[in-house]
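lol ok so funny story. i was supposed to be doing the assay writeup but got distracted and ended up predicting the structure for this chain instead. priorities right. anyway since i did it might as well share w the group, maybe its usefull for someone
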Amino acid sequence: MNGQDYYIPAIAMAVALAFKLPALRHNWRDPLLRSVVALLTLAAAVFAFAAPPTIEAVNRWTGVPNVSAPLVYSLITGFSASCLVLVVNWRGGPPEKTRRTSRRWILGYSVVSVLLVVLFALGDAPVERLRDLDTYYANTPYIREMIALYLVAHNVAALVMVAMCWRWSLQVRGWLRVGLMIIVAGYMFNLSYDATKMTAVVARWTGHDLDYLSTFAAPPLASAGALVSAIGFVLPLVCQKLSDNWEIWTTYRRLGWLWQEVQISAPSNAPAVHMAWWSAAELRVIQRESDIHDGFLHLGPYFDRQLRDAAYERARAEGADEETARAVADAAMVAAAVQARAADPEGRVIEAGEENAVEGPRDLLRISHALRHSPVVQAVRQRAALSGSGLSGSGLS
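and the output, tada:
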């Protein structure tokens, strides 16, 4: 692999990190978000500092041959720990247990990182090796132990990740399960990376030469493993966000029928609320619900409780369940009130101070659906329109 093969994944990770940083600034106490940011940061750093041009530059800037080795190995170790911590926080559970487990992984891999630096300092690696340090120094005291330590630590993390994600995937469904299976696939690449590296190093220990496995086969496996695993981590989060947004926009659209129905009740001098096109879907839903409740307040004098009760009995008689019947009854009352308000442009009923509003919460989505689809509501609306008033009777006789 050349420098470009390393820098492209690093840039991809950095772009993903840039999208996450604003969320971290607003919600930095979220352990899951912090874990995602840590993973993306370390993944980008691993690829950036493992590129041969960067290795050469770091060695030259510091004046220490091969000083990039413990740096890159420590970054790989930190990345392994961040993956384990992310899965621990992602899976959830009792907060104290989650924090305790996360701290153990962080502490354990921090010790490994310190040992990597100490072993490099104790060893002697005077000849700069940009691509084959693992095999070139496989038999050098202390450097040999440093190489073995980072490979074992990485392998342990990969095995634990595969086991954790596989067990978890058997307990969940949907996008989360897909993401976990992708992570497992990514870590199979990582296990293959460890196997090729270890095979080449052990071959050196036994007097054989399989350096091509470490120099040419292992790096593409590491790159593929990191990218596939990153997709597995990100996919469920992105898809869940898209699903949530879809549900919110669906709610906004479904409330539209009720919102349009009660617009007639808005005072002519009421200021119109215009939301910018970039306004969040949640804000749009809140505004629409507020408009509907305001409409109910203005329609209150025209609400007919007897009509509502009659519509409820009619819906129940036609086989509707309790919640649906209540929504049909409320929708029928709203439809009749709208017709009555239209027939009273001077607002005489309002001036009379009558108030017939029904107290209690209402299921706005069900009411909106009933306004459009319920035959009971359609019958009430037609009868009210013909009579010119929604207050002249039940409209269901």
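Residues 61 and 128 are 13 Å apart (CA to CA). The mean pLDDT is 85.
back to the writeup now i swear
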